[in-house]
Design brief:
Keywords: FAD, Flavoprotein, Oxidoreductase. This is Choline dehydrogenase. One of its GO terms (molecular function) is choline dehydrogenase activity. Its cofactor is FAD. By secondary structure, this protein is an alpha+beta fold. The chain has a domain at 1-49 and 83-148 and 191-292 and 473-533: FAD/NAD(P)-binding domain. 24% of the residues lie in helices and 21% in strands. The protein has twelve helices and 27 strands. Strands 1, 2, 11, 12, 13, 14 and 27 form a seven-stranded mixed beta sheet that branches. Strands 7, 17, 18, 19, 22, 25 and 26 form a seven-stranded antiparallel beta sheet that branches. The chain has a three-stranded mixed beta sheet with strand order 5-6-8. β1 (7-13), α1 and β2 form a beta-alpha-beta unit. α1 runs parallel beside α12. The chain is globular, with a radius of gyration of 22 Å.
């Protein structure tokens, strides 16, 4: 790893799911110098490395930006927390490790935004390039990529009952949902390598860290992109209280995420310049789409008690946790090596939708993962998520101070079509939870509607419990229309030398947990950049 200096060919802002990929791939060329800048610390914590400890980095002020929305008008004015990684690996270092590519139609539909080269068949080579799948290489899967993808064991009786109940309700067994048809119940695939979280920091950055042409800077808050005329010239950042200016000979690449990237752009005078007047920010480029079109998966938990001793809780008492910690520390096996989300499903809320639009994630105990609480109890819970919402939110400035977080408005359930799809999906889930397979294990419902609840009752309950799946996208989306921010390669319109590669450029949120799609996008754009140079 080279020593810090002032001039680089590429400056990458944000060492997350995309930034680590870009740093690795671009620095493969020994003739270019790459600087990767991260606001947070290194990812050395045992709580990041141990999959079962996933609530700890989410609770942390050190590794999580801990964003919070403005009061959500359709959720009774509640503020909704949004976990975003703040360390090497970014959100891949604090997420649930569930590996989902998405549906083929997700990517095939992106052409409606005026961009080419993003059909699923265009993306498949990069999904394969990124992964080493436990099942081995085949025409659909990669066998030698940086990201290790393993199949969960799903041996606990509650996991098996989830799979059985879904099939009793009429869902197929999807098998490898990342290879064929997503629809149906499945055993989850996870980004876990030999019992350790396989973040992009571990998979991409660690192998590249000793390259002489790669500089990694941590604890650096980027305040703005510096633009000379219409050329991105570098960035201004603060490290240990000292303000510094770094210069980019070729490009500044923003990988700061769906919230961080539009925030930096607006602080730099790039975005809806009419809104900057209030803050005294000099306009650089009028791109009104910066911060608009915010999308996220809304989720509702359906919770049921189970007989004492059935759920995993009996293995997570004080003695059990000591055993878990010892087994994982010594052998990287046991419960410490699981993310607990070992089964799931994709299904259609009704026959009116074009293709599967709902997701189930499942836990074999009761816990409040939305707020990071670790108090657990006997039971099980379904998480019901709508995959392609119609509601749109925004990121805007609160102040001109880079230390202040932006204003986040998700506007969950503001479109009646989202309410309809969620009600239908919840009703189907309640039916699944009352299949014969659950008769041995299903106890009293916990803050969950009855299976025969009316639409009005379900909607009232939904607005009380609805929360985020922590999958924000699309605030600087690719496209050719007036609200698009980048072209099909992430290059920012109206400017040169400025590119965005992260979840913010996705034209539409996919039918997937977003980590795998973001890594794929980074691999694809990096490849195009390398071949162009």
């Amino acid at each position: 790893m080279s020593k810090q200096k002032q001039m680089y060919d590429y400056i990458i802002v944000g060492a997350g799911s995309a930034g680590c990929v870009m740093a690795n791939r671009l620095s493969e060329n020994k003739n270019v110098n790459v600087c990767l800048i991260e606001a947070g610390p290194r990812d050395n914590s045992i709580f990041i490395k141990m999959p079962a400890a996933l609530t700890f980095p989410i609770e942390s002020d050190v590794y999580n930006w801990k964003f919070e929305s403005e009061p959500e008008p359709e959720l009774g004015g509640r503020r909704v927390g949004q976990a975003r990684g703040r360390c090497l690996g970014g959100s891949s270092s604090i997420n649930g490790m569930v590996h989902v590519r998405g549906h083929k139609k997700d990517y095939d539909s992106w052409k409606k935004f005026g961009i080419q080269g993003w059909d699923f068949e265009d993306c498949l080579p990069f999904f394969k390039k990124m992964e080493s799948f436990e099942g081995g290489k085949d025409p659909q899967r990669g066998g030698s990529g940086p990201i290790t993808v393993t199949r969960s064991k799903a041996e606990h009786p509650l996991y098996q009952t989830f799979l059985e109940a879904g099939q009793q309700h009429g869902l197929p067994n999807a098998g490898d949902y990342n290879s064929g048809d997503q629809a149906g119940v499945h055993v989850t695939q996870a980004t876990i390598r030999n019992g350790i979280r396989c973040s992009t920091s571990l998979a991409y950055l660690k192998p590249a860290a000793e390259r002489e042409n790669l500089t990694v800077m941590v604890g650096c808050l980027v305040e703005k992109v510096n633009v000379a005329g219409t050329d991105a010239a570098g960035v201004t950042l603060v490290q240990n209280g000292e303000r510094k200016t770094l210069h980019a000979g070729r490009e500044v690449i923003l990988c700061a995420g769906t919230i961080g990237t539009p925030h930096i752009l607006m602080l730099s005078g790039i975005g809806n310049t009419d809104a900057f007047k209030t803050f005294g920010i000099a306009p650089v480029a009028h791109l009104p789409g910066v911060g608009s079109d915010l999308q996220d998966h809304v989720v509702a938990p359906l919770r049921f008690q189970s007989p004492s001793g059935v759920s995993i809780v009996k293995q997570l008492n004080t003695l059990g946790r000591l055993k878990l910690g010892a087994e994982w520390t010594l052998f990287k096996t046991g419960l410490g090596a699981t993310n607990f989300f070992e089964v799931g499903a994709f299904f259609a809320s009704s026959s009116d939708v074009d293709y599967i639009n709902m997701q189930h994630e499942f836990l074999p105990f009761l816990a409040d993962f939305q707020s990071g609480k670790v108090n657990i109890a006997d039971g099980f819970q379904y998480f019901v998520s709508q995959m392609r919402p119609y509601s749109r939110g925004s990121i805007t400035l609160n102040t001109a101070n880079p230390k202040d977080k932006p204003a986040i408005r998700f506007n969950y359930l503001s479109d009646r079509r989202d309410v309809r799809e969620m009600i239908d999906g919840i009703r189907k889930t309640l039916e699944m939870a009352h299949q014969p397979a659950w008769s041995r294990y299903r106890g009293k419902a916990v803050d969950t509607p009855n299976v025969d609840a009316t639409d009005a009752e379900l909607e009232k309950w939904l607005r009380i419990v609805a929360n985020t799946e922590h999958h924000p996208t699309s605030t600087c989306r690719m496209g050719t229309d007036a609200m698009a921010v980048t072209d099909s390669q992430g290059r920012v319109h109206q400017l040169s030398g400025l590119r965005i590669v992260d979840g913010s450029i996705l034209p539409q949120i996919p039918t997937a947990n977003i980590n795998a799609p973001i890594i794929m996008v980074a691999e694809k754009i990096a490849s195009a950049m390398i071949h162009q140079n």
